[in-house]
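INPUT
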Amino acid sequence: MKIIIINGPNLNLLGKREPEIYGSKSFEDYFRELQLKFDNIELFYFQSNVEGELINKLHEVGFSYDGIILNAAAYTHTSVGLGDAIKGIDTPVIEVHISNIHAREKFRQHSFISPNANGVLFGFGLKGYDLAIQSFL
Ligand code: DQA
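OUTPUT
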């Protein structure tokens, strides 16, 4: 089974960025823990701060992988293009947010991803990625 985690803008700063909201662990460290825990699946990770690169990655993996876990970060709330990309691919997508986006600013309460996602997880911290992997098993 092939699953990819795709993280959007500013998530390369996890561990340093607003730790009171996003925690103090880097995603690279957390990803290694996930790879050890789920050692029977092929787990991949891609991060970009560039909207088009995220869309290109969705096109690249979206017809052959078994699952996509997408935290589009700020593009969640702005990107018609990412929403359309998910509509256009075959692989099921689980949307993840580390924070509870519904307990924050109003602009975070709208997602262009959710209507096209197979499931949405938010507010569980990094554990949301673990739960999303389990949803594919
Ligand atoms: C986020 C929530 C977004 O609103 C924000 O722009 C992020 C991270 C989260 O994981 O909680 O960058 O997607």
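end of record. The chain has one domain: 2-136.
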